Amino acid sequence: MIDTLLALVPAWGTGIVALATFLSCLALPIPSSLIMLTAGAFVAAGDLSLAATAGAAFAGAVAGDQAGYAAGRWGGARLDRLMVAGSAPARRIARARTLAERWGGPGVFLSRWLFSPLGPYMNFVAGAARLDWAGFTAWGTAGEAIWVAVYVGTGFAFAGQIEAAADILGNFSGALAAGAVALMLGLWLRAALRADRATRDLSRDAP
Amino acid sequence: MTRLLAAWRRHKLLATAFAAALLLTLFFAIRTAVFAVYWSDPAHRDQVLEGWMTPRYVAHSWRVPPEVMEAAVGETPARRRPTLDAIAEHQGVPLADLTARLEAAIAAHRAAAE
After folding, report:
1. Mutation to test the B interface, candidates A167, A169, A188, most B Cβ within 10 Å
2. Which residue of A7, A198, B15, B99 shows the fewest CB atoms closer than 10 Å?
3. A200 touches chain B (CB under 8 A)
């Protein structure tokens, strides 16, 4: 399975790299990290050009982000029309939007490369929350540049041991992403428990 | 413990998701460590020749000049970056024959260089 995938890189060249980063930004299960690592290794071996490979990966990723954002925006607008103004879900969506406006930019940036498994969902959320498009694009583009540089660069540096680099980097990024989700849920849970305690104290004080 | 249980009862979905995320983090962290240990063993590092590699990739991975591989590979199909699989198919030989030929060429080059 992995071998078939690796063989696609010399066979298709930079086209497969752009396609992989594009599709993976739309939450499709494409091992784009492995493909970028492999492409970096073929750059080191002299089979692919560095500029064309990095450019293809970057262009695919940026286009994928834009598509994901547009899909989120379209889906979010439809959701809005279904909502009753002032109802609880509508208020919650409004709050998510405020949150996205405040933290969205850096969140988008970090979900490109540090917590990359979260990236595609962030695109939909950012679009649905109507995160400012110029800000989304600026933070996203900067983050994708780092993502591409890290993976193509690692592939280039560890060209002889591409499987080792893929195993270690892949699991490490999984641990980072799962850890970020655990942290967010943990903070949420703590806030919920505090709210519980506050209501309990209030009811105890009441005669 | 009872407080934890009470918390879980009140926020079932949130607490379960939190526990699942923690377990997943642990799972990936352990895998990272296992792979790091596995690959730090030099015996696992020599990359066995495989069908998806190109002659240049083999040359780079085994640190021999690309010309040595080009000479050993022989006739290649007329397309850019042919893989060892494609070359073996083009020559009508099993992949194992081709990789054996390349390994022999690498060994000969290294012996000559010493």
Report:
1. A167
2. A198
3. no
Mean pLDDT (whole number) for B61-68:
88
Q: Taking each helix axis as running N to C, give the angle between helix A88-113 and helix A133-157, from 0 to 180 degrees, rounded to the nearest 10.
A: 30
With b for 16 or more beta-carbon neighbours within 10 A and e for fewer, the B11-21 pattern comes to beebbebbeeb
Find the residue in B nearest to A193 (Cα): B7
Structure confidence by residue, pLDDT tens digits, A180-207 = 889 988 888 888 888 888 887 777 665 5
CB B57 within 8 A of CB A42: yes
Phi-psi region of A169 (alpha: psi -120 to 50; beta: other; left: phi over 0): alpha
Interface test with B, best of A16, A163, A190, A197 (most B CBs within 10 A): A163
pLDDT tier for residue A42 given thresholds of 50, 70 and 90: very high
User: Radius of gyration of chain B from Cα atoms?
Assistant: 25
Shortest Cα–Cα distance, B61 to chain A (Å):
4
Asked if the Cβ–Cβ distance from B39 to A44 is below 8 Å, we say no
Q: A43 in contact with B at a CB cutoff of 8 Å? A: no
Which pTM does this prediction carry? 0.76
Residue A175 is encoded by which pair of tokens? 């641990």
